[in-house]
Amino acid sequence: MEIRRTANAGVLLTLDDTEILLDGVCQEVKPYLTTPMAERDKLSFKWPDGVFFTHFHEDHCDPAFADAYFKKTGRPVYGTSQIPGAIHSDNAVRVGNIRLTAVATRHMGHYGKTTEHRSYVIEGSKRLWFLGDASPLELKKLASFPRPDVLLVPYPYVSTPPALKLLEDLLPCKIVLLHLPEKAFDPDGVWQTAAPGIEQLKAYLYVPQMGEKLNF
């Protein structure tokens, strides 16, 4: 299994000879990272087998890429009703050799009142949970699914003791931490807030750079 970071909070997952893009193309919302043109070129040169978005926010989703993907491949894009043209469902779908189940989850903070959001449970020879921007408390909604081998979450999951406790309860799964800005441009002090949790979970936690590949 390979995970390549392609966006602020998204990745290209290669599992069981199937490529799935998860929030993997985003627009620029400073201080968070946009999808570099080099990554866009790679993704459009060899289109993934499936494209999934958790919600419509620009730091997670690029509708123009989704539209181009559908026009070039004829394959649907999965997401929420707030993403133009996306199929939104809480039912499981099979793409290639893996199965993905969308789970309705609440976005963190005040956006939870207005933002339709889905997290994804991914099952093949490995199991992954992709949380998007779901509140850490939403992990409880996934308790009925088999425990993940790999958990992909944004930085708030390591930024408070209660959230850290929820992650510790899922160990020894591997944790991929996303949604972090460049250290050199971090006006909100995200890295400083997350640093103690990153250190606490360092035996299990990975923080990929843009374009970096992780193999599990």
Commentary on this structure:
With 216 residues, the protein is an alpha/beta fold. The protein has 4 helices and 13 strands. The strands form 2 sheets. Strands 6-7-8-9-10-11-12 form a 7-stranded mixed beta sheet, with no helix packed on it. The longest helix is centred in the first third of the chain and has 11 residues, at 63-73. The termini are close together. The model has no long low-confidence stretch (mean pLDDT 96).
Shape descriptor reads globular
Which blocks of ≥5 consecutive residues have pLDDT under 50?
none
Q: How many helix segments?
A: 4
The secondary-structure class comes to alpha/beta
**Looking across the biggest beta sheet, what order are the strands in?**
6-7-8-9-10-11-12
Share of residues in helices: 10-25%
- The fraction of residues assigned to DSSP E strands is 25-35%
State the order of secondary-structure elements, H for helix, E for strand: EEEHEHEEEEEEHEHEE
Radius of gyration: 16 Å
Q: In this structure, how is the largest beta sheet organized?
A: 7 strands, mixed
Total E-strand runs: 13
The average pLDDT value, as a whole number, equals 96
| Measured distance between first and last alpha carbons | 5 Å
What structural keywords apply?
single chain; 216 residues; alpha/beta; 6-stranded mixed β-sheet; 4 helices; 13 strands; 25% strand
